[in-house]
Each structure stands twice: as structure tokens, then as C-alpha cells.
Amino acid sequence: MAAIQAARLLSRRNYVLPGQLLITELFFEVPKNYARPEAGTLKLFGRSVRKNERPITPFSAAELASKEKLPYLAYLEGGPGFGNRGPQNHALTQVALNRGYQVLYLDYRGTGLSTPINADSVLSQGDPKAQADYLKLFRATNIVRDLEAVRLCLTEDFDEEKKAWSIFGQSFGGFVSLTYLSKYPQSLREAFLTGGLAPVKRTADEVYAATYKKLIERNAAYYKKYPDDIASVRRIAEHIQSQTKTPLPSGGNLTVPLFLTLGLAFGGHGGLDEVHSLVLRFATDLDQVGRLTHASLADFEAHISFDTHPIYAILHEAIYNTKRTGGPASNWAAQRVGEALAPFSWLANPATFLRATPPSEPLYFSGEMVYPFHFDGTLGTELGRMREAADILAATAEWDEDLYDEAQLRRNEVPVYAVSYVDDMYVDFELARETAGLVKGIKVRETNGWYHDAVRSKADEVFGVLFRMRDDCID
């Protein structure tokens, strides 16, 4: 990648939170399109955090300056399409502060409090092709450019040896980390990845062929734990199918395929229980009042957040278009691969599937997949308004640049520490292992003891493993 100009710092505001955390709220300005800086700018929002120490005697000016210039650890969130929680709500904060870092939580372009992506902002770009071109600017390559521009801004007056920073990538944040390692390795001191070893060499079709296999295992685990839900899930699906319409509070419509996307939760700790709780609530509604209540439908919508985080839906398959040219278009890969598999053939025609399968056959939930029906108004109008742009992206086989530089990863010199989950439903373990073999010098802890969200649900254990890998020498 070409050299990047530092981001322009627009504002900085400090405040102190209980627990002795000094939070700095930051707004930056960066080019919308780095290849065409004259095309306008975007705003990025982030929060940096460090200890708010109160010594018995005040710090000297030199000591205070040193505290302000602690090495940065930048956290890269999963998704794509999600902003960051507050630093006080993130388990990484105290772990990193105790190890001498200050931490930056930067909302990627289009997410959180950074310049948002929504139907209004996308449609304002012009016709569907212009809309799709705009959305392409929100891929990992430009996220990395933004990070690099912000790094240059924040470390402008740091000593040279402190200008490089560390990164911590969870899930899609790990994908972004591999792009960063590909493009600006000289800017990185070290990289930590959790559930984020992207399938660098694989197409979207190959990715979904692998993740559907794991999804079948997770469905089997669900019905083994909750065997009575075989009947409950089918009863709910048949009720939904029998209705002319089941309006959702946000204005969408609950369909059988949308109901069966609840399996997205199966990849996290407690995910089976989470889905069972909602199935129980729906089944109880049918027992007591013969319909799905407003409160239950609102609870359902809270589990399916694509409409409020549209980048997740509209760019999800694009994260697997790794090559600028030569790779196939994703072409709604999750739909095509899934409907060819017997347990997920409801994707082709749910009414036919329900009629053709016996009541004793469990209905399998889908997982981390985005389908064309997400854009047909079932989730409300937001995604539906971007359907034409989504179709163009699905048909795109030629992109502006490769997401990863495999040659650079093979000669990597940046220390990389990764945790990879054998039972990861979102990032296939075998494909992750393939990628680990590509990155020179990487240290990987492979485990079947945790699921994909362990960085939140098993945080102390995960951080302990990562920092032991960093600190312990293998003689």
C-alpha cells in the first residue's frame, strides 16, 4: 500500500470513570476514498483508555508526558459492521492496562459513532452501481488505512521506537489484522488474534461448505440437549407458515426462513440455551394465546440485528472475496450452498419442506449466513432499500485490490499470537489451521475447550493463554 497521511484530529475530550480509568473520546477525519482524496471525508470515532493514577506526590512534567505516551494496543472488533462497547465494559481494558499499554477502541468506518452506513447514506450516493461502489470503500483494506492514519496521528510526537503499535483482533478483527500484517507490517509491534484466522486461500463457496458442516453438528447438539424442541420448533414454523403475515415490531415480517436464522447464536457460549429460551417463549405464546405476542416478537428482533448493523449483512460475503481478480463472485454463496444440503433445503421453499418432511424430523437452524431474503423486507425497510446494491456486490468478481498479501505473510517478522477454536462455528478450524501455516512465525493455541466468543465469556483464560505465548520462551 502507498504511504498514508495522518488522520486529522477533530476533537479530544477526557473524563474519568470509576476504577481509575482515564477515557479520551476522539473524533478523526480521514479520506472517504484514499485513492481519490478529493472525493470527501469520513469521520471516525474512538476511545483511548489508560490508568488515571493519583500518586502521593504529583507527577513531574516529564513523568506525565511519559504516561501519555505509553505504547498503544488497538482493539479490532468482530463483525463486520459493529462498533465498540465502552472501555469499562471490555475485559481487555484492565488486562492491557496492567501490562503497560494504553488501549484504543476505534469504531470502523460505517459503524458505531463513526460516519454511519444506513439506507439513507447509501442511497444518497446515486444509482445502485454508485451505491455498491461506495459500499466497497468499507472493506478491510480501507479499515486498515484508517487504522494506519489514526496511528500516525496519535503517535506523531512519540519516540521512534514507540510509534509502532500492537493490535488485538477478535473474529473479523483478526481478518483485519491479517490485512494489516499484509500491508503495513512495519507499523506493528505484535498482533493478537482470537477466532480470527481468516480463510485466506478460500472462496466463499468453500467457506460455507465448511461452516455448514459445523452448523449441522451444532444443530444436533441443540436437539440432543433440548429434544422436546423438535416438536416445538416445527410447531412454531408451521404456525408462521400458516399466517398471511406475522408483523414484526420494526415493520418487517416474520417468515420461517427468518425464524430459522436464530441458529446464529449457536456459535457462542450459552447459545443453545439462548435459542431454547426464545423457542420456549414462542411455544408458550401459542399455548396460551394462539399467536406470537408483541413482546416475544420484539425479543426475536433483538437477536437479529442485521437491520441496525447493515454492513454485517451487505458486506458479509464480500469478506471472502480475497482476490482483486481471478476469484469468483460470491453470488449469494450461503444461499446456493445451503439449499443444496438436505437439512437446509428449506432455503429453497419452506412450505414444500414442511409438507415433505415428517413431524419427527428436526428443523435445522442456519448460522452466520446472510441470504437474499434478508433484503426482501422481512427485517423492515432498511436492508430492503439496499437490495439492488447488495445484488451488485454479490455479482462482483473484480475488486480494487487483494485483501491479503500472501507473499508478505510468508515472510512475516511481526510476532503473532493466536487462539484458534476447534469447535468454531463461524471461522472453520481446518481453514484457520491452513492460514496459520501461511503466516511465518505465528504461535497458535488450538483448543476445543472454548467457542468463538471466548474473548468475552472466558476472557481471563483467553488473555492468560495469549500473554503466556508472548512472554514464555520456547527453548
UniProtKB/TrEMBL annotation:
<feature type="domain" description="AB hydrolase-1">
    <location>
        <begin position="86"/>
        <end position="220"/>
    </location>
</feature>
<dbReference type="GO" id="GO:0008233">
    <property type="term" value="F:peptidase activity"/>
</dbReference>
<protein>
    <submittedName>
        <fullName>Alpha/Beta hydrolase protein</fullName>
    </submittedName>
</protein>
<dbReference type="InterPro" id="IPR029058">
    <property type="entry name" value="AB_hydrolase_fold"/>
</dbReference>
<comment type="similarity">
    <text>Belongs to the peptidase S33 family.</text>
</comment>
<dbReference type="GO" id="GO:0006508">
    <property type="term" value="P:proteolysis"/>
</dbReference>
<dbReference type="InterPro" id="IPR000073">
    <property type="entry name" value="AB_hydrolase_1"/>
</dbReference>
<keyword id="KW-0378">Hydrolase</keyword>
<dbReference type="Pfam" id="PF00561">
    <property type="entry name" value="Abhydrolase_1"/>
</dbReference>
<dbReference type="InterPro" id="IPR002410">
    <property type="entry name" value="Peptidase_S33"/>
</dbReference>
<dbReference type="InterPro" id="IPR051601">
    <property type="entry name" value="Serine_prot/Carboxylest_S33"/>
</dbReference>
